[in-house]
Amino acid sequence: MCGIYISNIAKEKREVERQLNSIKFRGPDYTGIEKKNNLTLGHLRLAIIDLDERSHQPMHYKNLSIVFNGEIYNYLDVKEELCAEGYSFDTEGDTEVLLKAYDRWGKKMISKLNGMFAFAIYDVEKNEVFCSRDRLGVKPFYYYWKDGFFEICSQLRPISKGKIINKKAVSAYLDCCYIPSPLTIFEDVYKLKPGHNLIIDLKNRTKKEEKYWSLKKVKVKDITYKQAKERVHDLLKDAVKIRLQSDVPFGSFLSGGIDSALVTSLASKESFVNKIKTFSVGFEDPKYDESKVAKQYSNILGTDHTEITCKPKDILKMLPKLVETYDEPFADSSALPSLLLNKVTKTNVTMALSGDGGDESFLGYNNFDWVTKFKKLVKIPYFLRYIFSFFIFPLIFKHRAEPIKRILRTKSTKNFIEGIFLGYNSLLLNRDLGWMSHYNDFMNLSDNDYQKTADLNIKLWLENDSNVKVDRASMAFSVEIRSPFLDYRIIELARALPIEFRYEKGKKKKILRDILKEYIPEEVFNQPKKGFSVPIAEWIRVELKEEFDSILTDNFLKQVPNLNVEKFKKMYTDHMLNKRDYSSYIWRVYVLAKWYIEFGYYKQV
Question: Residue 275's CB: how many other CB atoms inside 10 A?
Fold first, then answer.
């Protein structure tokens, strides 16, 4: 886990050092900066495998130089194949394997890799830079491009100087709580899409993106439930096993959910240590607290468990870290306890497993229940629903009149699924969803509405929210997180399974539950899931009220492009008077304000 940098913009080494120091937390163990012809290559190293200086980067081999962030979990298999081809190795890490695999197979080597990665390889002979990002977008990859000049980096801050705010990205953020790729908060700066390569021709100063992997048209397997369960179980075992390769202490995150419990169960079986270290976050408010369930899991599995209680004062302390490390406005409030969890984790281990990705593939979110309800609602003729939207339902659900009205006027289940991710209430004066066209294509890969929802979850929310949250929160404290459910083999297998194996009569993650029974009694894990969320609504009204009042001023609100200021102010007032819960909307505008201040875009009047 590291930070990468490469650019053809002429800069002094001291300036590049300053840029990389702003994200030093990504790689505190070593900073490498080298000039190669007219390119500057930089690397921040967090040493996980082969801790020796021989694995520092930039790394070179013949005409090739690489800067690499991530882990190749199957690197030993690739290494064995290369040895059979006559290659020898000077290190024990995966970077050298990646470099020599490119020497042997060129860009075709990507298909051999199982891992999370973002890297750039400079080929002196071809006068070309070859870059690639992993299939699910676990590792970040940002690049600035204008008139043939480029800068590539793992985060935005080092390449943010002098950039212009992208107004379309701000609008997308106010809808989504994050900025969807390929957009970034800045003009002329982009995210490389997951499963894509970026090839830069240095001579002609041109670039092109190529897709090497994506979700495919669903073909449901002809398979029995027993066979499916065995395949999922075996593949999960292997996904966990290959992620336990580490030369530093490791542990596992353990919430009250099924996914982390299953990952920890499998890791406990595979681990060579007597007890695996586990970590969880709890809340004082029992409506949000899952720590007791996590403790039950720990007792059953015999783990060495650490529990952190998240209090409002802890959140206040994490707010500066949120703005410092996330670079772009990011309004998933669960990033705050994630930061706290990683802070404590770092005092015990450097690498941890997580259960992220299980809900997307095995239909675990409430999204799927909402689809079930809408499929019943859509049976009512549209003209009747349209009439109801004016009278009956708004009167019954006064506190949610606008979203209820929009849901009733939604014509198809596909439109409803899109609305799940964009919301049925908007802060925008003018809503332009042109950027969604790229993501809508992923809802055409299946005829099943639940799979459509799952695919949009994977391509839109997982990449731009969940993966960003996990990467930044862990890297903020130099912790590496590995997620077995994000193994592309599991994603592909799950999508090919019949829906009823995963979601049966409202029972979410059926197949994972049945596997977990082999490790933990059903009555323990069958308790209601509360989610990894924080009681932000009440905190805004009480503990954080003074902070919010001081930040969300008329002066700032008028600076936000396309924001419906009057509507937002009404929401804010109603929330503070406890008439409505508009915490999600207030939080995203607050985070945007903090970003404006942090990056120097706030204009004092």
Answer: 14
CATH architecture for the domain at 225-363+459-525: 3-Layer(aba) Sandwich (3.40)
| Predicted local distance difference test score (pLDDT) of residue 533 | 66
Q: What is the CA radius of gyration of the chain?
A: 24
Q: Measuring CA to CA, which residue among 182, 216, 195 is closest to residue 134?
A: 195
Query: Do 269 and 302 touch, CB atoms closer than 8 A?
Result: no
Mean local confidence (pLDDT), 164-191: 97
- Of 221, 235, 304, whose CA–CA distance to 512 is shortest? 235
Residue type at position 457: N
CATH 3.60.20.10 describes domain 2-211:
yes
The amino acid that residue 495 corresponds to is R
pLDDT of residue 283: 79
DSSP β-ladder status, 196-201 and 189-191: unpaired
Beta partners for residue 191, in sequence order: 142
Q: How far apart are CA 271 and CA 249, in angstroms?
A: 11
177 given a catalytic annotation: no
Q: What confidence category does residue 210 fall into, taking pLDDT thresholds of 50, 70 and 90? A: very high
Task: Name every residue whose Cβ is closer than 8 Å to that of residue 64 and which is 6 or more positions away in sequence.
Answer: 99, 102, 103, 121, 122, 123, 124
**Tokens, residue 4:** 């990468």
CA–CA separation, 448 vs 444, rounded Å?
10
pLDDT at residue 388, rounded to an integer: 79
103, with CB counted inside 10 A (0-12, 13-18, 19+), is middle
What backbone torsions phi and psi does residue 305 show, to the nearest 5 degrees?
A: -100, 135
pLDDT tens digits, one per residue of 144-175: 999 999 999 999 999 999 999 999 999 999 99
Is the pLDDT score of 394 beyond 60? Answer: no
Q: pLDDT at position 598, please?
A: 95
Q: Hey, what are 221's tokens?
A: 């397997």
| Distance (Å) of CA 590 to CA 230, 471, 540 | 47, 22, 10
Is the predicted pLDDT of residue 531 greater than 70, yes or no?
Answer: no
Q: Does residue 385 surpass a pLDDT of 90? A: no
Catalytic residue among 2, 153, 176, 310: 2
Cα 365 versus chain centre, distance:
16
User: In this predicted model, which residue has the larger pLDDT, 257 or 534?
Assistant: 257
- Predicted pLDDT at 279: 95
Q: How far apart are CA 177 and CA 235, in angstroms?
A: 33
Does the pTM of the predicted model rise above 0.90? yes
Q: What are the tokens at 318?
A: 């994490």
Tell me how far apart the alpha carbons of residues 469 and 474 are, in angstroms, rounded to a whole number: 8
Three-state secondary structure call for residue 531: coil
Domain spans of the chain, in order of start? 2-211, 225-363+459-525, 368-451, 536-598
